[in-house]
Amino acid sequence: MPPTIREAIRWGQSVLKAGGGEITDTPSLDVDVLIRHVLRCDRAYLLTHDHLTMTPGTWQRFRKLIARRSTAEPVAYITGTKEFAGLTFRVDRRVLIPRPDTETILNLAISRLTSCGAGASGVDVGTGSGAIAIAWAIACPMSTIHAIDIDEGALQVARNNHRRLRSHANAATRIGVKFRHGDGLATFTNNVDVVCANLPYIPTGDAPGLDRGVRDWEPHVALFSGPDGLDAYRGLLSHASRLVRPGGSVLMECADTQGAALSILAKEWMTTARVTVHKDLAGRDRVVEAQTPKAPIDRTRGTLPIP
Predict the structure, then answer these.
(1) Strand, coil or helix: what is 6?
(2) For 190-206, what is each residue's pLDDT tens digit?
(3) 119 & 264 share domain
């Protein structure tokens, strides 16, 4: 006979706790998310109906999800969804799971593009699930957002998220994103006001020390980038200076130990840029910004030259 919801929760927690920290540091939270996913209910329902007996079907499905989580498969891949910037994105093993820390670079991208006014444009390099590009486009409806990824599978996920969120948006919400396949900015020819890049930045030698859920499940093409983790940004910066309009910005997410090294790299490639390191909500280095000088005033005409 299937257990009650309360008994199933206790069982799931005991299974995940038995795996130790190598499987998960949040067994109770994981079980809560997975059982609500199976029952298709919110937390309030769970708290007030946990005395009910599960049906044979829901009990079997829950056991299968716990078995998957016991292999360190991330909860987001199991449920197929991840919240980011107040939106729900579909994710699978073709894309990196969006992290809360990445909202730091998103907020900067929104601020910089908004200050450029209507008609400005930006490009999200390494778009993955499309989370940054889509949230950026929603926040800046009068701008054009391009989104690039080297992996066709990731682009398929991003396009599907774009179609789904656009179909669910109200009539007043414009979500305009132009997706394209490419290796960074190598073949991108549009001039833009803001480049937003969340590229792989983990040194290849750090792979053995990563959490199993990251190392064994998330796409390595979106994680690792050479001995110091900055190879992808070298490629990005080698093209960025020719594409960013005067007064524009290149925003690059990095690990909290890479701010200084990435700043030096940015200054080497964009010699006239003002380079700033921005911190996340936890006070850790998270985003390096290289902002190009604004166009000089044309004193003979009293106007800014058109870029």
Answers:
(1) helix
(2) 999 999 999 999 999 99
(3) yes
